[in-house]
Amino acid sequence: MKTGFLVLAHDRLDKVGDLVRTLSKANAPVVVHVDQRVSKAEIERFTTFIPEAVQVISTRRSEWGGFGLVLATLDGLKVLRDMTPQPRHICLLSGSCLPIRPLSELEEFLTAHEDIDFIESVSASGQGWVKGGLAAERFTLWHVVSWRRSRWLFDRLVSLQRLLRIRRRMPRGLEPHLGQQWWCLSIGTVSAVLDHPKLESWKSFFRWCWIPDEGFFQ
User: Fold this and answer.
1) CA distance 186 to 167
2) Mean per-residue pLDDT for 41-49?
3) DSSP for 111-156?
4) Between vectors from CA 67 to CA 59 and to CA 83, what angle results, nearest 5°?
5) How many whole angstroms separate alpha carbon 143 and alpha carbon 133?
6) Which of 41, 77, 153, 193 has the fewest CB atoms nearer than 10 Å to its CB?
7) First to last CA, the chain
């Protein structure tokens, strides 16, 4: 296959094994990023029951809503982009995914759409994508604590910044967009992100956004 797969995993590595074995049977290049919070012993056990061709990395703590998920994705993309032969598209998958259609159908579809990116991306200033939560304020406010671990403090900081009318400025040339974390990007787009001269400044900005994995690539 010319399509590569990046899998983000944090638990149930037995189920992740089912996924990567299915992908490997189709001769697809696969990289799995395992949350750095998972024990080394568990990761070592995981590598013993998956195909040797699957590359496993564990470079980042990948807490829900945190920037570590973006960094883990970037790390996995670099590994896939540098493979020979280079994949034509890279699909980002959750460890809980499992194909329900033959992968040959996906390959045929992507072959017919070689330069197309498949990613949900809607303006953060619009209405409707976010249901009952923050939209544009994911980007314009400072989010320095975990919503899951410190929900009370997170909400108080949001209220305080609104009261003080604090607004972060988006990096020049970027307009905030939102979309689901999971996507399939052409290798040209992946390389454009990884090699962009402003990547480090973008990373610095998005580090303090809320749920940046639903906005960074959008």
Assistant:
1) 34
2) 95
3) HTTTT--B---EETTSSSSSSSS-STHHHHS---S-TTT-HHHHHH
4) 45
5) 14
6) 41
7) 26
> In what helix (H) or strand (E) does residue 31 lie, and over which residues does it extend?
strand 30-34
Structure tokens at 40: 């080394």
- 62: left (phi > 0), else alpha (psi -120 to 50), else beta? beta
Q: Which pLDDT tens digit goes with each residue over 119-173?
A: 999 998 876 788 878 999 999 999 999 999 999 999 999 999 999 999 999 898 8
CA 209 to each of CA 67, 134, 167: distance values in angstroms, whole numbers, following the listed order = 8, 11, 12
Global pTM?
0.95
pLDDT digits (tens, 9 = 90+) for 74-92: 999 999 999 999 999 999 9
Instruction: Please tell me the predicted confidence (pLDDT) of residue 160.
Output: 97
Nearest to 90 by CA among 110, 72, 104, 105: 110
Query: Which DSSP category does 216 fall into?
Result: S
